[in-house]
Amino acid sequence: MEIIQTSARKRESYKVEVKSSLLWECALGIAAITNTPLLSSLEKKESEWKTIKDALSADMLSQLEVVQKHNTWKALLQLLHQKEFTSIEDFHDTVSQLTTVELKAACLPFLGGAHQADVQKAAEGHKESMKALMAAAEDHSFFSAYISFICETDPSFLRAHLCSTLEGWYQTVIQPEAEQLSRVLTADVTAKKAMLKRKHPEEMVTWATGGINYSPEPSVHTVLLIPHIVYRPWNVEADLAGYKIFYYPVSNQSLHPADPYTPDQFLVLKYKALGDEQRMKMIKMLAEREHTLQEMTNRLGMGKTTVHHHLKILKSARLVQNNGPVYSLNGNVLQALSDDLENYLDSGL
C-alpha cells in the first residue's frame, strides 16, 4: 500500500552531551581490575595491572574483593551521576550525607520508568519490591544478585566500602598521574564537542563509540558521552532516567597529541579487519543476509575455529555484530568508513 507523506516534521532524536571526570576514570579502573576475564583484552598489559595491585594497600585489596564479588563498581558509577563532583572529598561528603534510602535508591540500576516506584520501595526495605526488581533484571548477567546485595547489605558497611574503594584507588592510581590523565580526557572532550557541531547526534554516538548504533527511544532525551582511558578499547553502557550513557575509549589523537599523524584506533581496526581476503568474503556474505557461524563455516569451507577467529576480528572493528549465534553486518559503520577516513585526513588542517 502506498503512503503519501504529508508531514514535514523531522524525526526527533536525542541530544548529545560530552563530559569527563577523573572520578569516572577512577570507577572504571576499579571495574576493569575486578573483571578478571576481561583483563587480557584491555590495552593495559596484565603486567601493568599486577604493578597496580602490588601498590595497593591490604585494605584496598580487601575492598576490591567485595567489588569483584558484588559488582559494586556499578554503585560507584551510579553515585557519580548524582551531581558534578569537584573532588574525591566532595564525593565522600555527599555520600556521607545521604540517608540510607537515598543511598540505596541511588545505587540501584535504572530498569525503566515502570520500575521506579519499586526502586524507591526496595530502598526502603520492601522485600516484594526488591523481588520485582530482581525479576525485571533476570536476563542481565549480574543485576539480580547486585540488587539483592544493595537492598540487604548494612548501609554503614555499603557507605564505608564505596567511599574507601573510590578514595583508595584515586590516591594510589589516579592522583600520581592526575595532570596527564586530566589533559587527555579534556582534550578528547574538546575534540568530540567540535565534531558534535558537524555531526547528527546519532552519527556522533556511532563515531565516538567506534560503531554503536543507538536509535532514539521515547524515554531517552539525552545521550551522555564520557571518555575513558583505562577501559580501552571497550565501551561501557549504562542507563539512567532520561539518559543513555556511553563511557567510550578516548581516541589515539587525544592520547598522542604531539603526533598529528596518529589515526584513531577504531579506524585502524576497521581497515586491518578489511585487509584480509577471507574476511572480505564474510563481509559480502553478511551484506547479502544474516548468517550463523555454522552457515559461514559451510559456505567458506573453513574450520569453525578459523571462521570464529575472523568474525572476532570483524566484531572488534565494529563491522559485524551478533545476536546469539546469528551474525549480521553493521552497515552504518561500513558506510561511514569513508567519512571516518576523511575526518582523519582533515584533522589538524
TrEMBL record:
SMART domains: HTH_ARSR. InterPro entries: ArsR-like_HTH, HTH_ArsR_DNA-bd_dom, HTH_MetalResp_TranReg, WH-like_DNA-bd_sf, WH_DNA-bd_sf. It holds the Pfam family HTH_5. Residues 259-349 form the HTH arsR-type domain. It comes from the Bacteria. Keywords: DNA-binding, Transcription, Transcription regulation. This is ArsR family transcriptional regulator. It comes from Sediminibacillus dalangtanensis.
